[in-house]
Amino acid sequence: xxxxxxxxxxxxxxxxxRDSMLILIIAMPIALAVGILLFAPGITDSxxxxxxxxxxxxxxxxxxxxxxxxxxxxxxxxxxxxxxxxDEIAGMVFMDPGYEIIVQGDEDPGLLxxxxxxxxxxxxxxxxxxxxxxxxxxxxxxxxxxxxxxNMLILMMIMLAGMIISLGIVxxxxxxxxxxxxxxxxxxxxxxxxxxxxxxxxxxxSIVVSLLILGYRDIDWLMILLVGxxxxxxxxxxxxxxxxxxxxxxxxxxxxxMTMLPIAGSIAGYELLAERWQWTMYxxxxxxxxxxxxxxxxxxxxxxxxxxxxxxxLGISMLIFIMAMPKIRKGLS
Amino acid sequence: MITVRNLSHSYSKDGKMAVNDISxxxxxxxxxxxxxxxxxxxxxxxxxxxxxxxxQKGEVTVAGYDLNKVRNERFNKxxxxxxxxxxxxxxxALENLKYFADLFDVPTRDPHELLALVGLEGREKDRxxxxxxxxxxxxxxxxxxxxxxxxxxxxxxxxGLDPAIAATIKDIIKExxxxxxxxxxxxxxxxxxxxxxxxxxFIIDGEIRLIDTPRNLKQxxxxxxxxxxxIADSRPVKETLKTIDDGDRRKLAGIVTSYDIVTMHSKEATxxxxxxxxxxxxxx
Lengths: 333, 284
Ligand SMILES: Nc1ncnc2c1ncn2[C@@H]1O[C@H](COP(=O)(O)OP(=O)(O)OP(=O)(O)O)[C@@H](O)[C@H]1O
Ligand SMILES: [Mg+2]
What we know:
The complex is a heterodimer. Chain A is an alpha/beta fold. Chain A has helices at residues 2-16, 20-39, 58-67, 76-84, 109-123, 144-175, 178-182, 188-213, 221-245, 249-257, 260-272, 285-297, 303-331; strands at residues 49-53, 69-73, 90-95, 98-102. In chain A, helix 2 runs parallel beside helix 8 and helix 8 (188-213) packs across helix 9 (221-245). The two termini of chain A are 19 Å apart. Chain B folds into 2 domains: 2-219, Rossmann fold; 223-267. Chain B has a 6-stranded mixed sheet, with helices on both faces. In chain B, helix 7 crosses helix 9. The radius of gyration of chain B is 22 Å and the shape is globular. Chains A and B meet through helix 1, helix 6 and helix 7 of A and helix 2 of B. Bound molecules: adenosine-5'-triphosphate (ATP) and magnesium ion. Adenosine-5'-triphosphate is lined by residues 11, 18, 36, 38-44, 83, 188 of chain B.
């Protein structure tokens, strides 16, 4: 049965290369990731930047390079001009008896704290080798706006997974080939899994590629993929239902696009609602997916929290799955 | 190969039956014709036998499998050609056959050989979407043989094909029969049925009226007919008269002595005429 499922996937992948709409749907998130990278450089900084003078002590520069991305400048004026640009960077200039920190004023407080912290470590003569404590991240090693954009991009890809599935089903319907499959030894479950695989593989692939493009190399990949996979379940159900209920690709795509509503609602709820109203969004699997991704992307996630989110996504999707399955089965027979 | 006992099928809950309490048996190696006018319930019966429609009422075994128990593996022994062709338009003819070949667990036939058999050589690399209706139909037909089926369902295999291709399809069916394949053939074309089938069933309004060999049917119901065309009052008149009917015989004698005969020939009753005689209805 595995061989047949993979065969169905291979056929779908071949057809995808011949279908401009599918190519577009698969390529779009990657293009958006590149767009985020190119047009918003300030928000893609992933580590703390510190500006130093070239004639600063070599020991000090080397120390700072251990903990931050260091930029060097010829004069204090040049350094100040750099600090005044809109992205976040803290300058450090030696003024007897110690270092003075130059900031623009509107930076994240975490940046200033981090710079101060590094400064005291240096002054105390503590090096990496001596330190027994772990470096704290101040929860801000990844700029929050970037995390939010990337998280939205991931949920959009999850929605597109449903669209890919619905287009595959519309193709089978238009060619009337479901009957032909039903007189082969392929079971209905095998067919459903096979038809889901292109959506799974291309979407997980897009998520990985986009995250790499955007510079997330050291996140917990297993967590990200697990959340991606489970949150896809609901869009798959929508994809199958819309595919079976629509006669052409446009109608199917439009139907699946409606899942953007709960997705956008969940994101808005998570970001904008006060803590005591967050529970109003607990029904939405996308809320839990967004929350889990938020923690993972900003490297604050731990397995227990992620597993609770994944469990909730799965549980809610499963309920909908049980309700939708008879309809899907009927449509496919 | 197929046993059907008291099979009924309805598409609605109002008690209107598309197939109503039919029973028949098909022997291994037999070519069985299912004949009837449009809407008689032919495709519905084939749908139930191939498992595409759920068995609602009755006992049916197909290729040794009881249809009340769902076993997908039985399709390894079964081939189905559909009334409406259904192939992937975004795949080439060859890719279509290769794909389906991989979905079976039994040794399959060479796709190139099958395409050549139905006259599609040279078009292997063309997308099925660019094919004419007849070509798609031939591809669907070729696909139904991919798993070397023991039991072969053919729904209107020659309808809408040009006569030369229809003749090719008929030859293929005869070849398969020679190899021992059991065939369930659905059609409204009585000539095809007459030529290919060992036995035929007449179905109308969801019920089987009779089952017999074409030869027996002709002996039982067919009479020699005389078709005569003559001039009466300077106008041409055409009449068909039965040779076994005394009135008709006297009438024929009268015509021959009193009028100018234009044409006159004898003919055997066709299966179609027998169908009309038995069911009181035409085939279209
Ligand atoms: N999907 C369906 N839903 C509802 N009624 C149907 C459906 N398919 C067939 N019927 C009805 O069932 C009856 C039998 O139809 P069926 O398709 O079996 O006829 P057929 O003998 O194959 O005709 P044809 O020669 O036109 O193919 C008809 O009255 C038809 O209207
Ligand atoms: Mg029919």
